[in-house]
Recover the amino acids of this structure.
């Protein structure tokens, strides 16, 4: 047996223990966006610090203004590239809790009707399960061979789901320590359950939250209806005016910096045979919305979008309350592509919102940071190594894909630390990340660990 | 001293005790719309039953499918009209609780900067303070003269703020017991702090609540944004399309049965000198919204309106959650005037909503009962008696007004029991009913009690 085969055999034999460790991490309620869960975020960071030190990666919890970072190193000046592995230990909120089939922080292995085994818990896929694939790969490598094949640094953050407010200052303050030859980022998905993928194109994002206010207090709709401004109506007007009848976003100049893909790229993607029916059918839908001259794969990878993630105003309880609320709220996110500038988009959005605010009303904006879209170089040499490693493990060519969601860290690594990122992940479309009943396939976890062993092995080669 | 002067003097001397009794009632958390407060609603009914029996009105708590009624009688076949006094002991919910300056169920007398004394509590004006004006008037009359000048029956309900689901069956089942010569209803306001009013025109109301659903679960906006329907956008489109740029409601046929007022009525109202600036200024506004060819007094009394009292969908917590919610909600109420038919308006609304539901979305309606508008006969003889009584107490002619809010009971009394209603109340525009920091002027309470003494005395005259 070659040394890599021994490492892989150890992983197979140790899988139950790997799962026990993952479950320990999944039980920690590290919801970063809600201040109530500050202590569990700290606890998750400390748990990871201990795990890394236990397997031979010297790690420490590093305080920030928000939730802490975990930084680890195992390096001895090996000839191959020094890689920085990135993941995040924080998770999304769990509401609406009543739609979960079990306690989101009580992980379990379940078997679906088709026999697929899945790990069910908040964070199973996003991103605790994913980051543990790398930790377990490193553990097996060191246990079996006494070392890692390349120098490895680790960065786990705890604010990915809440806009990463501490990340820029932390990267800036620790530039020398964290700058490596390249980054490995495990927060993405496969093409499908059988086909691995490397993401080479990431949309950016910019968000905003508005509070529209009118009267100085809630009003009785029998007395003031018709005469007083109703913030619910104003917010609804703002939302309704953001798209035209063809699904285009109406902000002036919004599409100016969108870049159309070269024909060879779209041709490659056409071959992937994206199954629109399955993509929408999995969530109970049939008819693609959106720009009606574009395909859902374009909506997902190469087109900008605007979504209202939350809106509220007035009475939400049981029964009727005849009230005109003093204020109403909405949360917006724009996905960005090509050269769209988050600041410019936010300015256009705010100008538009202000233009829809009538006399007697005011608007307040709750600022959100944005990040532009990114495209990696298709000719980047490590892409080939990644593709070979994944093909060896999965027996199929990796798809080179775009990505719908944002991973701002990739842009930060590029701009602040001068590093390209290899984005390899094992999530699947039906993992229900950010939703009730999040899961991660047991196969994703198992073969994910094995995939990282092969990637590290490939990277060490000349 | 005439007997009526003695009754009035007793009221003045007993005011502190009257307030103590009112405070006992205000402390009971009888929120009818929320099932959690079922027990306090029962408690309020039993408290009123005891009060009425104590003062010599034979009363009992009468069970319904929902919150109980309190019915009382004191009658001996007097020659004057037999009157039924109506009020409601239930109150509106108190949220948002953080905007209250004190516990809404811990009543207190406060003194405003201008020296006005006010009773602050949920229900102080709507309707516990108002109904207690009549109870205290009856108490003083019986205590001082040994009897009431006319036969009196009482009906207090506990579901006025939650659509009165038990009222129709109760009136139907107790038609003989409750049918009197006329009703006295105390749930309305004065023209201003110095000018009493009798309401002769009431708007109707019909409401509806919608739930718009799309995907079978919450979605990640990075994955499904642009492609999947977002119920927040659909609900916003529905709300935004309900009014045109001139503030007119767009439902087909909506204005068909609206009746314009005769010129003599509007001329009378013009003399009232409605102060738009003060009306809006009191709540921090300046610019009348609504149909831009109508005055705010028309919006309030003679024009139909449509207001969204609540809307919600998606994430409302702190920070960002990149979600497309599976569903979104909105609560609507329409104020009706003239001959507008609640059922017809609801049908037009539902047809409109359905026309805005795209493929892949569905809508569910949560049914709400409606009531048509009412106009009393300006030549009704008891109107003159009411006007004389009020002028004697307040030294000013009573204004004959319309009313913005709905009082469905008046229509029920007319249609089910064949009774006209004399609507006399002592609320003021700035009472903040249905809002935080609800209050009732001490003067309204005191002179309200005295006014009922004079009204009962007038009604007993030939």
């Amino acid at each position: 047996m070659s040394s890599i085969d021994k490492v892989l055999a150890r992983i197979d034999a140790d899988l139950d223990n790997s799962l026990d460790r993952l479950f320990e991490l999944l039980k920690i309620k590290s919801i970063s966006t809600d201040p109530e869960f500050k202590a569990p975020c700290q606890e998750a960071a400390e748990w990871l610090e201990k795990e890394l030190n236990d397997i031979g990666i010297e790690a420490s919890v590093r305080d920030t203004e928000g939730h802490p970072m975990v930084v680890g190193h195992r390096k001895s000046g090996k000839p191959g590239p020094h890689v920085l592995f990135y993941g995040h230990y924080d998770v999304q909120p769990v509401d609406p809790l009543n739609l979960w089939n079990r306690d989101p922080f009580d992980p379990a292995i379940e078997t679906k009707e088709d026999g697929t085994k899945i790990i069910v818990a908040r964070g199973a896929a996003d991103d605790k399960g994913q980051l543990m694939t790398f930790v377990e790969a490193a553990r097996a490598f060191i246990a079996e061979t006494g070392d890692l094949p390349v120098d490895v640094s680790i960065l786990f953050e705890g604010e990915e789901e809440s806009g990463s407010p501490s990340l820029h200052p932390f990267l800036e303050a620790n530039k020398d320590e964290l700058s490596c030859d390249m980054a490995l980022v495990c927060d993405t998905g496969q093409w499908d359950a059988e086909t691995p993928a490397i993401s080479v194109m990431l949309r950016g994002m910019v968000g905003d939250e508005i509070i529209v206010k009118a009267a100085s207090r809630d009003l009785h709709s029998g007395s003031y209806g018709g005469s007083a401004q109703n913030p619910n109506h104003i917010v609804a007007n703002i939302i309704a005016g953001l798209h035209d009848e063809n699904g285009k976003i109406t902000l002036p100049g919004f599409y100016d910096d969108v870049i159309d893909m070269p024909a060879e790229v779209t041709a490659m993607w056409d071959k992937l045979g994206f199954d629109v029916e399955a993509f929408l059918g999995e969530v109970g839908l049939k008819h693609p919305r959106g720009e009606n001259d574009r395909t859902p794969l374009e909506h997902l990878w190469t087109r900008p979008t605007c979504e209202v993630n939350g809106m509220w105003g007035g009475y939400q309880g049981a029964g009727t309350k005849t009230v005109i609320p003093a204020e109403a709220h909405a949360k917006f996110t724009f996905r960005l592509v090509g050269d769209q500038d988050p600041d410019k988009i936010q300015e256009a959005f705010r100008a538009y919102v202000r233009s829809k605010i009538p006399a007697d009303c005011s608007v307040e904006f709750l600022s959100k940071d944005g990040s532009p879209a990114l495209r990696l170089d298709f000719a980047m040499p490590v892409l080939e190594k990644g593709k070979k490693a994944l093909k060896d493990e999965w027996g199929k060519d990796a798809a080179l894909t775009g990505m719908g969601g944002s991973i701002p860290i990739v842009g930060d690594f590029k701009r602040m630390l001068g590093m390209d990122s290899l984005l390899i992940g094992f999530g699947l479309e039906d993992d229900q990340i950010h939703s009730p009943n999040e899961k991660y396939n047991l196969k994703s976890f198992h073969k994910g660990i094995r995939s990282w062993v092969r990637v590290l092995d490939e990277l060490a080669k000349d």
Q: What stands out?
A: The radius of gyration of chain B is 23 Å. Residues 442-460 of chain B form the longest helix (19 residues). Chain B touches chain A through 99 residues (CB under 8 Å).
